[in-house]
Design brief:
mainly alpha, 12 helices, globular, membrane, EmrE-like, AA-Vitamin_Transporters, DMT family transporter
């Protein structure tokens, strides 16, 4: 019964994270992308900070730990969130969700390169399946390589930035708990994003004009529920059943993104793109070593601070 309860929490988080791609698409269509992303991440970071401060569950950082958390904020929050938000202004939420499904795969490739994780035949097969899935979605589904949107490229760069951040997070997690890393990375990343927004967009968010009331509801839900509460719940589940078992659920988030894109954004998802998405999920399952007899859990990243 306890595990069923935790699985329910994880399912809630995947729904929230999946629909968050739809929420971000709505927000960047109504506000300057970097500015609204900075405010969204700041709101999420403050929610987590207040929660952990009240529970007295925040650890102090030394200079070494501060460096790793800062680097994770630069890559995973500033890099990932800025590139994702800008990318979604130039591509569909369905394409964005499909590309983001590659994050676990790219993360494990970098873990092989930088964390000395083991590469196996199954993982190599997963990489090829993932690449094939992207080809089905972006090339066959979109028409041709020359018709690829610049937004797709930015979203792919955001995947790499997120995967790189996990390397720094893993280094920090040897001495800091997941909740502390998540909180400080969100707050630092929000600061970086807000500074970048002033440099790129000035005070344009103040001159955006009136937006429909539902957009502010979307903003609050994205910041508080998806990013704030979602990260807390996910890290809670990790502490109870481990990173390996929780990581399997990550494959559900893009699925809910695709459903949300069709239902709320009226986007069309072609059959060939569905085939590509299935290939990506299969590639992720193989590439992350879930089917290995003795998965090396100690090499897996235990924190998520991106959604």
């Amino acid at each position: 019964m306890r595990k069923l309860y935790l699985y329910g929490i994880l399912l809630f988080v995947m729904v929230a994270w999946g629909l968050n791609i739809v929420a971000i698409k709505i927000l960047v269509d109504n506000f300057p992308p970097v500015s609204i992303t900075g405010l969204r991440i700041l709101a999420a970071g403050l929610v987590i900070f207040v929660f952990l401060y009240v529970k007295k569950d925040l650890q102090k950082m030394n200079l070494h730990e501060f460096g790793y958390v800062s680097l994770s904020a630069l890559t995973g929050i500033l890099g990932h969130q800025a590139l994702l938000s800008v990318g979604l202004t130039g591509t569909s939420a369905t394409n964005g969700a499909s590309i983001l499904a590659l994050i676990p795969l790219v993360t494990n490739i970098l873990a092989v390169l930088f964390l000395k994780a083991k590469m196996t035949i199954l993982k190599i097969s997963g990489v090829f399946l993932g690449i094939t899935g992207i080809y089905f979605i972006l090339i066959l589904g979109g028409g041709s390589f020359t018709k690829l949107a610049l937004g797709d490229f930015y979203v792919f760069l955001s995947v790499i930035a997120q995967a790189v951040s996990f390397i720094f997070i893993r280094k920090a997690s040897y001495t800091l708990n997941a909740k502390t890393i998540t909180c400080y990375a969100l707050l630092m990343g929000a600061g970086f994003l807000i500074m970048l927004s002033f440099a790129l967009e000035g005070q344009s968010i103040t001159t955006t004009g009136a937006v429909p009331a539902y957009v502010w509801v979307v903003f609050a839900a994205s910041a508080i529920i998806s990013t704030g509460i979602g990260n807390l719940c996910y890290n809670f589940a990790i502490s109870k059943i481990g990173p390996g078992e929780t990581a399997i659920f990550l494959n559900l988030a893009p699925f809910f993104s695709l459903i949300g894109s069709v239902l709320f954004l009226n986007e069309v998802f072609k059959l060939i793109q569905l085939v590509g998405f299935v290939l990506i999920v299969c590639g992720v399952l193989l590439g992350t070593g879930i089917f290995e007899r003795k998965p090396r859990i100690d090499k897996q990243v235990e924190v998520s601070v991106s959604k």
